[in-house]
Amino acid sequence: MTNQVENNKHSWLDILTGAQMLFVAFGALVLVPLLTGLNPNVALFTAGLGTILFQITTRGKVPVFLASSFAFIAPISYGVAQWGIPATLGGLMVAGFVFMLFGFLVKINGANVINRILPPVVTGPIIMVIGLSLAPVAIGMAMGTGEGIPANIPKYQLILVSMISLLTTLIVAIWAKGFLKLLPIISGIVVGYVLSCFLGLVNFQPVYDAPWFALPNFTFPEFKWQAVLYMIPIVIAPTIEHVGDIMAIGSVTGKDYTKEPGLQRTLFGDGLATSAAGLLGGPPCITYAEVIGAVTLTRNFKTRVMTWAAIWAIVMSFIGKVGAFLASIPSVVMGGIMVLLFGSIASVGINILVKHKVDLSVSRNMCITALVLVFGIGGMVFDFGSYALEGISLCGILAIVLNLILPRA
Q1: Which residues pair with 90 in a beta bridge?
Q2: Contact 340, 138 (CB under 8 A)
Q3: How many Å apart are CA 164 and CA 155, to the nearest integer?
Q4: What is the pLDDT of residues 82-109, one digit of tens each?
Q5: What's the CA gap between 170 and 294, in Å, rounded?
Q6: N vs C: which end of the chain shows fewer Cβ within 10 Å?
Q7: pTM, entire model
Q8: 78 Cβ contact partners less than 8 Å away, ≥ 6 residues apart
Q9: What's the first-to-final CA gap in the chain, in angstroms?
Q10: Going by C-beta distance under 8 Å and a sequence separation of 6 or more, which residues neighbour residue 261?
Q11: From CA 51, how far away is CA 94, in angstroms rounded?
Q12: Strand, helix or coil at 152?
């Protein structure tokens, strides 16, 4: 009888800890759809569904929660502007299949196949371009050029909101301690939102009008080969991020997840979750670094805690006022956050080059890096009439081809 009571206590503790894990992931989980035009309630649902699919695929052995990588913000934003949301979702579904393909290649050739196909000299510049290519969009939003901003608000007030949001995020990320250090994005949004309320930037009427219970507004994909081809190279950055995350969580728990359940299973799980999200209208779902930080802090290594976090996410997705409240966050607040996020993505690319000691004085490495950066940031377009090769697609193909054909020293 005593053991049964203890088990019940542990079960309730798992449920509450799962809610805490979702809270840690919540900032960036909803930030990606808010910045890209996708529905935040759908993002909550697909994050929960994706995490459960991942747990099934990996046989419940890896304690992680899945949500969207910041590396997808710029590509999704561009895809939505160029081809619309359904076509972008179709591209994201295919991106999930590429994750699964990488898992298949790892199963056949071993874990080192990822580094052979995507060495640092390829991945570093591509990730830098992902971060920097839409930097003007972030700056524009931070300056108040986004939609829904009242015309009578002075420009200096808009910049004040975005910069205070940015400053709060920086302060929390650098100087905060303990659990708060895991929430720099949420902290920046909260402070920016409160300031926006005082300045009259927030319209609460849609929140009042929204129902408490509502089905998520699922959107189903369409398939345009231009959008599909554009999205495929985007998988490069999250693949590298995934391998790092799996190794990081393994170092925390003392287990080698690249062997059991195996990197092939974790990659396949990411791919399955991403394709499922694209099918329903959510952003891609991959392993999530912020939750790894929470696991490190709490020392809670139970995978069932992540399952409860997934259940919490699915339940919250049916609360209509949640999505309406999130949509009420002014774009200037998000603009301040985006300035840091896009720069952070670019710095990850730089760090890859530095960490792996890529010598840019070597002509081969210098040529690959230089061409990818200039083509990507400069907006090079290869126009073939019915199709234009540009952006991340062009950079990904260019980097991989140059790495294959240029002679090594």
Answers
A1: none
A2: no
A3: 14
A4: 888 999 999 999 999 988 998 888 888 8
A5: 19
A6: N
A7: 0.72
A8: 133, 134, 230, 391
A9: 71
A10: 58, 59, 61, 62
A11: 19
A12: coil
